[in-house]
Amino acid sequence: MAEVSRSDFSNIIDHLLRSTVFLYSKEHKFSGTGFFTHADFTGKVYHFLISAKHIFKDREKISLRIVREIGGGKKILAFESSIKLLNKNGDPLWFTNWDLRQEIDVAILPANDLVDEISEFDKKVGVSGRLFFFDLSTFVDNSIIQQENICAGCDILFPGYPLGSVAEISYPILRSGIIATPPGKDFDLLSKTRGKYEPVFLVDAQFFPGSSGSPVFWPVNPIRFNVEENKIQQRPNIKLNSPFLLLGVGTAFFHHPGRVSGAPLGTFYRENSGLGIVYRAQVIKNLIVKYVLEKEEKEKLEEANRKLQSIEEVTEIEPPDIAQE
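Request: output the structure for the sequence above.
Response:
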């Protein structure tokens, strides 16, 4: 793996901000956040737009806006596009875990065509730099959590568009917090499914409407704790693919219903605890892998059927008539 110096951090933060997108609908008066990732399977590259499922659910389309720069950053402008979320049969074009026994608030939208559209826009207006993606090697799993000692108390960064309070052309807002519960262990969201653990962890950070779909990153710390020697050490070289690793996607604030004093029985309000819910990066990775495997299997089956059909359509040679003697 290539070494990454601390001097690269500001450059990668810039890429991180410029690759986070604003999702919105003026018609339905809502907004959210999304980000791009890509995966290379046997030489074929798949691009995806990642966000919270509730941003895509029950909608025919959604608008996307992403900041682009020209003239070395001297001028900024926005690429905008309306994205279809349903096919002609009314089925979702996005993908999630459809198993109702473990419903998750995460969705991936195949985005190869969208990425091509952005690339064409960039060429046309002379955008500085290219669209930046975090690949699957930067997704945190339990092995990286153990290797890097990522735990409650570690810092996080998450770009997004909280409250949708942005100008027509605006960078996402980069915010910070700390991990509040062990990031490798499922958490019981009592306010949703009592007694049912989900693949999430909590962060001590305020998530507001508009933050849903924000990528949550762990900045690789040059200081690490050596468990074997029981002491803190300076990391000599950061030998990870990126100085930022994706912990997951933020989807909502953690709340619990509170009683309204003096109000009729059964009147509750949702109190923001100041904690955010983050679905682990492994959840996103599992969705991507499952989507790609199913798509490639379907393509193989369709190709086999086409070959079979072409064989069946070959005109059979009729045997010649033999004259009766």
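Confidence is low (pLDDT under 50) at residues 1-6.
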